[in-house]
TrEMBL record:
Family designation: Belongs to the sodium:solute symporter (SSF) (TC 2.A.21) family.
Keyword Membrane: yes
Protein name as annotated: Sodium/sugar symporter
Spans traversing the lipid bilayer: 12-29, 41-62, 74-100, 121-148, 154-174, 186-204, 257-277, 298-323, 361-387, 408-426, 438-456, 492-510, 531-550
UniProt subcellular location: Membrane
Superkingdom: Bacteria
Upper classification of the organism: Bacteria, Pseudomonadati, Bacteroidota, Cytophagia, Cytophagales
Keyword RNA-binding: no
Topology with respect to the bilayer: Multi-pass membrane protein
Length: 551
């Protein structure tokens, strides 16, 4: 295994970098408004097409947490980790049909604005602060950490050097505003899909060469089936098998993917509905468009989403077989640190086995995914801070130009905070699990107040506030006092507790009357244009087919 990139790899990466930079500058100067308009900067209002919206959603979603973290969990758990992608693809359809009309027809541009409009300012402010902490301390930080970890393994440069490089690259993209992010994300998605599929192909071919007879990709797939049968189950039972925890020990696979209970109690649905439907840096792409354009964008994102297991899960499975078969001492040494098996190292180590040139393509694909995701998240952090906190509490008379300028300052500050914290994540073991678990402290309460706010006219502000405040302490209590409950099941239990609390308080407070701030439930779902409905059926069918084949 050759650590580092060769000249040809750097040339390929430089071509990618130049294309993104030049196209981003062209978009900045030729698309949309040329004045300092906050809605144009934060939302790219009216200027994103359906394909740009869909590509940008996936570019923000697919990042180091998938390439590195999810590939690591494929090494650890197997094919079952793709359930996040499959359920995510189906969830995007539901969100396009039910959630989007609520936002767009009520002119909602930020998630705190929805809470302000439907409930009151107290809840909007509390949740705006929560979201800022979550996006910076968990999402932005973890992407920088996992991205720098992978680049460190590929290039041989130090962790902080790689982290600074990714941060600076993302800052320049983000400062151009959502318009630049949205359109450059199209290039980023093309790059990550092409590069990701090429990496998968070469990983399977490598597996065939090192473990099999060298017959090619199909043999590589067969070797995964024959040598990693335990990694091909979609549903786990408690105590079925133990997996490396990334800290030097073992953990029950059921604790991370608790079988059918994650669907029955709802943990898997909570993760995806909250992430794609109540998440500023995902929905923000669609909020500036008309309903049909936004819906078609989400459908395109749904289609791209179900391609992701081929890009991020199969390489992890290939790395697992190579590791188990001890096919190359360099692979074992790269995945093991100080005698501890580190699943998150599997994808970067695999990339180092690629031939010169193709390693540069994979490097560009990984960088594209990381930078696009960082840019989208940082723009959303800035959006919430400026529109829901700064202009409401610190300076209510800001001009459009001042709002945009301070928004750019907020972007830089958020990146600096995340960059400073990122090295400390080395103590958390498995990166993707860290993201899901700690996001899950707040997501049950968020989803509860959004769903009841959408579809139950009697939901009151005090009930929603109580539900939001219950989510974190109840999650923390269950984590430390009932550690045997898998975190996805814990999320489900907390969600239903938040729902019950909000319902009880709302009924006592409203005495059966509808809230004066209730939204009219949109009934246009059965009048959705036929192309969208046909696409939704196709995507749903593909998801169901995968479950039936591998169950």
């Amino acid at each position: 295994m050759t650590l580092g990139l060769e000249t040809a790899d750097y040339v390929i990466f430089l071509i990618y970098f130049v294309i993104v930079a030049v196209y981003g500058y062209w978009v900045y100067t030729h698309k949309g408004k040329q004045t300092a308009d906050s809605k144009d900067f934060f939302l790219a209002e009216g200027s994103l097409t359906w394909w740009a919206i869909g590509a940008s959603i996936i570019a923000s979603n697919i990042s180091a947490e998938q390439f590195i973290g999810m590939s690591g969990q494929a090494f650890q758990l197997g094919l079952a980790i793709s359930v996040y992608e499959l359920v995510g693809g189906f969830s995007l359809i539901i969100i396009a049909v039910y959630f989007l009309p609520m936002y767009i027809r009520n002119k909602i541009y930020t998630m705190p604005q929805f809470l302000q409009t439907r409930y009151d300012g107290r809840l909007a402010t509390i949740m705006a602060v929560f979201w800022l902490f979550l996006y910076i301390l968990v999402n932005l930080t973890s992407i920088i950490y996992l991205g720098a970890l992978s680049l460190e393994k590929m290039t041989g440069f130090g962790f902080m050097s790689c982290a600074v490089f990714l941060t600076v690259f993302a800052v320049f993209i983000t400062l151009g505003g959502m318009k630049v992010i949205g359109y450059t994300d199209v290039i980023q998605v093309i790059c990550l899909v092409v590069g990701g599929l090429a990496t998968t192909y070469l990983a399977l071919d490598l597996l065939s060469d090192r473990v099999g007879t060298g017959a090619g990709v199909l043999e590589g797939l067969g070797l995964i089936r024959d040598r990693a049968d335990s990694h091909l189950h979609m549903i786990f039972s408690e105590g079925q098998y133990q997996v490396h925890d990334g800290k030097g020990g073992f953990t029950d696979a059921y604790n991370q993917l608790p079988g059918l209970m994650m669907f029955v109690i709802g943990g898997q649905w909570i993760v995806n509905f909250n992430y794609f439907g109540c998440n500023q840096y995902i929905t923000q792409r669609a909020l500036g468009a008309d309903l049909n354009t936004a819906r078609n964008g989400l459908l395109f994102a749904s289609f791209l989403k179900i391609l992701m297991p081929f890009i991020v899960v199969l390489p992890g499975l290939a790395a697992y077989v190579l590791f188990q078969e001890n096919a190359d001492p360099a692979i074992v040494a790269g995945i093991t640190e100080g005698g501890i098996v580190k699943p998150d190292n599997s994808y970067p180590v695999l990339l180092n086995l690629l031939p010169v040139g193709l390693k540069g393509l994979a490097f560009a694909a990984l960088t594209a995914a990381i930078v696009a995701s960082l840019a989208g998240k940082a723009n959303s952090i800035s959006t919430i801070y400026m529109l829901d906190i700064h202009r409401k509490f610190f300076n209510t008379s800001l001009t459009e130009k001042q709002t945009v300028w301070r928004g750019r300052v907020a972007i830089v500050v958020s990146f600096l905070i995340a960059l400073a914290i990122s090295p400390f994540l080395k103590n958390f073991g498995q990166g993707f699990e860290y993201i899901q678990e700690y996001t899950g402290f707040i997501s049950p309460g968020i989803l509860a107040i959004f769903l009841l706010g959408f579809f139950w006219k009697k939901a009151t502000a005090n009930g929603a506030l109580a539900a939001a405040l219950l989510s974190i302490p109840l999650s923390a209590y269950l984590k430390f006092n009932a550690p045997g409950i898998p975190f996805l099941n814990r999320m489900g239990l907390v969600f239903w507790a938040c729902v019950m609390l909000q319902v009880v308080i709302s009924l006592l407070e409203s005495r059966g009357r509808d809230s004066p701030k209730a939204f009219a439930v949109d009934s246009s779902w059965f009048r959705v244009q036929r192309p969208f409905l046909l696409g939704a059926v196709v995507v749903s069918g593909l998801v169901l087919l995968v479950f039936l084949v591998f169950y």
